[in-house]
Amino acid sequence: MAGVSPPGEIRVLVVDDDALVRGALTMMLDGADGLRVVGEAADGDEVPALVDAHAPHVVLMDLRMPRVGGLAATRRLRERPEPPEVVVLTTFDSDENVLHALRAGASGFLLKDTPPAQIVEAVQRVAAGDPMLSPSVTRRLMQRAGTEEGTREKARSALRSLSERERDVADAVARGRSNAEIAAEAYMSVATVKAHVSHVLAKLGLDNRTQIALLVHDAER
Question: Which part of the chain is the HTH luxR-type domain (predicted)?
Answer without folding.
Answer: 155-220
